[in-house]
Amino acid sequence: MPNDYHKYLVCSACDATLVDIWVVKPDLINPLTGKPFVWRMQANCPFCGDQSYITEVVGKYFPGGYAVSLDDEHENEIPSTILENINYNEADDLVTFTVMKANPHAKPCKCPLD
Ligand SMILES: [Zn+2]
Q1: Which of 13, 29, 42, 104 has the lowest tally of Cβ within 10 angstroms?
Q2: From ligand 1's centre to the CA of 37, what distance in Å?
């Protein structure tokens, strides 16, 4: 089984990392189609008002807000965003995340992995 990994939704205008997608089963097969699940995702940006790039994620995933880790153990983190809501827009086949700043003073943080 492939390892799990993280994928990130990033603002198309200001480059802030908005949503942390933890992909746990990238090879999960949809029993209705016999093919892997493929999700198209997009998030709003609470920092500049624009939106993320539409990003494809395959398999089973857990979404979360984004926080910058200050150490390898992830014990000290600066929260940047939190997820408020998740919707599925069937007409556009798009999973849309509603993202808020983690607090009124939260700064837009860029993913160090990108
Ligand atoms: Zn932005």
Answers
A1: 104
A2: 28
Specify the pTM: 0.88
Query: Range of 27's domain?
Result: 5-101
pLDDT digit string, tens, across residues 68-109: 888 888 788 889 999 999 999 999 999 999 999 999 999 898
Q: Is residue 108 part of a domain?
A: no
44 C-alpha to ligand 1 centroid (Å): 8
What is the count of structural domains for the chain? 1
The tens digit of pLDDT for each residue in 24-48 reads 999 999 999 999 999 999 999 999 9
| DSSP one-letter code for 108 | P
What's the gap in Å between 96 CA and the centre of ligand 1? 15
Tokens in use for 90? Answer: 């069937």
8 A C-beta contact, residue 37 and residue 61:
no
Q: Which residues surround ligand 1, an ion (CB under 5 A)?
A: 11, 13-14, 16, 45, 47-48, 50
